[in-house]
Amino acid sequence: MPVVFVHDALETSIVWEPLREVLSRESLALALPGFGAELPIGFDASKDSYASWLEVELTAIAGPIDLVGHGLGAVLGLRLVTARQTPIRSWAVDLANVFHPDYIWHRTARIWQTPGAGEEALARISADDPDGARRGAARLQQLGFPAETARRMTAAHNRTMSHCILSLYRSAKPNVRADWWIENAAGTIPPGLVLHAAADPFGNEPMSADVASELGATEARLDDLGHCWMVEDPVCVGHILERFWAAL
């Protein structure tokens, strides 16, 4: 029974390495198309295309699966567990606030959603420019990622990744709840865990708690951890996840 990890935007699958090392279970970290991975021919990088891609990937894995999603990966994971038939035994996500009815995209996302401004912002942190690679790594370090992890992920940020980020976020206006939320889904989905990283600037604990309640999920607060909780304290997070899985 594998654990499958799905990463966020501006990141690659290497973000999960520290957490995977402390788990005693078999695990797999998927690389989203265009994020350090090849972009399939004809793939339009919309939110629906990414959800369909993830559905195919999970269906191809010998399940049942314990899915863990972070940021963008959390959004895609919640879409699948509420609306698709996939071999998921359980799910754990952060940033569930993105699915709250009152959610407004954060400032960076709104810039990406703006034609011209989004292209300019991502070009400034792309590895296609040596100065951009430096700025991109510095941005990830400001979020708490170690310097080497930030450097490795920024090295994968090319024009393809920028294109995918822009297409994805522009397909998610005004928010993902508008056309992705399934009302009264709690009784039909697998058990879930919503993680509240207390220092994540993109989180909103009350909103995330509301979504957890709607979905009948349990909650765990990651005190003093931020957006990169999986590398900040992988041992702590590993224990939380393993207790959740053991109780299923």
Explain what you see:
With 248 residues, the chain is an alpha/beta fold. The chain has a single domain, classed as Rossmann fold. It is 44% helix and 12% strand. The protein has 12 helices and 6 strands. Strands 2-1-3-4-5-6 form a 6-stranded parallel β-sheet, with helices on both faces. Helix 1 links the parallel strand 1 and strand 2. Helix 2 crosses helix 3. The two termini are 13 Å apart. The mean pLDDT is 94.
What is the annotated CATH architecture? 3-Layer(aba) Sandwich
Largest beta sheet: strand ordering: 2-1-3-4-5-6
The largest β sheet comes out as: 6 strands, parallel
Distance between the termini: 13 Å
Report the total helices: 12
Total strands: the figure is 6
Strand residue content: 5-15%
Structural class assignment: alpha/beta
Low-confidence stretches: none
Give me the secondary-structure topology.
Blueprint: E1 3-6, H1 17-22, E2 27-30, H2 47-60, E3 65-69, H3 72-83, E4 88-94, H4 107-112, H5 117-123, H6 130-142, H7 147-155, H8 159-170, H9 177-180, E5 192-197, H10 205-214, E6 218-222, H11 229-232, H12 234-246
Parallel strand pairs: 1-2, 1-3, 3-4, 4-5, 5-6
Helix pairs in contact: 2-3, 5-8, 6-7
Summarize the structure.
The chain has helices spanning 17-22, 47-60, 72-83, 107-112, 117-123, 130-142, 147-155, 159-170, 177-180, 205-214, 229-232, 234-246, and strands spanning 3-6, 27-30, 65-69, 88-94, 192-197, 218-222.
